[in-house]
Please model this.
Amino acid sequence: MNCHDARESLSAFLDEALAPEERQRVALHLEGCPECRRELARLEQTVALLHRVEPARAPVGFVDAVTAAARPRPWYRRVAAAVFLPFSVKLPAEATALVMVALLAVYVFERTPTLQESARTQPAVREIPRENTVRPAPPTALRDRLARDPSSGERPPESKVRQFEKEQDRREAPAAPRRDATPPVAAPPAATAPAAPAAPAPGAAPPAAKDEGALEKGQAENRQATAPPAAEGSRGAPAAPRLAAKRAAPSADAVTGIAVRDRDAAERDLAELIARVGGRETGRRREQDATIVEAVVPQPRYAEFTQSLARLGAWRVEAERPDLPAQVHVILRLQ
Amino acid sequence: MREAEAGDAPRFLDRLRAGETAAFEELVITYQHRVFGVAVRMLGNAAEAQEVAQEAFLRAHRALADFRGDAKLSTWLYAITSRLCLNRLAKGERRLRRQGEETLLRLAGGERPDVAVERSELEAALQRAIADLPEERRIVVVLRDLEGLSYEEIAEVLDLELGTVRSRLHRARADLKDKLERFLP
Model:
């Protein structure tokens, strides 16, 4: 055995981990080689140094920490740990993600006009397809403007009246009579005579629509398309469907709200007032918080009619057509 | 071995396999210093070593039901700990740098100041010399000269041939001899 082979085995020789024959050969070499003996001694001293190293001791509380960690944790703690731990990494990442989602939401909202519109307007407005091309001011804004200056005499533009009517349409029950004011279509037989000559016939709707602009025209066409039989055969067919009559009816010319103390008394007084100015009541509907009265009033006496409403209570014109026809179709809300 | 292998009594193994909390606690109490010792010598940092030692026990806890008892519990725990340390070192999952001095000062507590200083110096030199060894040699010398395992046990823990254990240990000791020359008589 040479020195190289002997030194390769010195470590195992020290540990007595060599097979007997190999151990014998190393021992023989060591007897005749002082360098290898010296090397063995240095190795032995090195191992002795290593043995002087104090055994490491686990820190205080280690057992408690391990046994606590080994206990099964409730599911919510596991979920929380999965979501939030390690805090230093996940919290900033999650906060960043939250901000980015918020920014994305704002960006999408800003870039999508339909989202903005749906956030502002009421669902009823969106039910009518042609509203996609014409965007009237929100009803709430209209009301606010009117409420601020009820006596200014400023007449709301046509679109405001239409807007209010749509709102009324939405609030009505499907079967509720509304446009009974249209004499040839849905007015009670007894009431048709005086009003019929002045009221526009359904067949005359397109010419009237021309004056009222594109919006009214579209509606007029809609009326013709949906209810021609009821309109043409109205005199001979008083039982025409109410819905059709409602669609065929001309729009209201004015809407007035009256705050009354006694609704019953106010209804009676209003009926008298309508009769006195030569008008006629064409419909009445009692709701929980208001009574809706529809009437036709001759245009010459319309001013007198509105002035007299003060006797019933505090009133204000909520909407009014700028060019009143000969027979003013007015909706009064007593509340 | 430094402690008796009382933990390998069949009754104790049965309790462990049954998931008895007290038995697991007993296991941790018995082997905590040995497992932590391997981790701290391999990683050179007490906090990191504690983390790895805890993980080793938790892995053992999860696998206890399947522990067949072919190997000794200590060998099994050393194997888990060694693997965790080597994996961590190989993957570079080192959040903290070595702080051997901190560990060594703690280990040297309770002695006369002059002895403590001398011992602390030797400990620091030893720690540095061990830490500078290649990992595959370091784990062998730690298991043999610090933890006292036999060659056969080391081969089992590290899943190595006996000859490989022997040669790695020899090279590790030769490296340490050169680095610790000034402490040798």
Residues 79 and 159 of chain B are 9 Å apart (CA to CA).
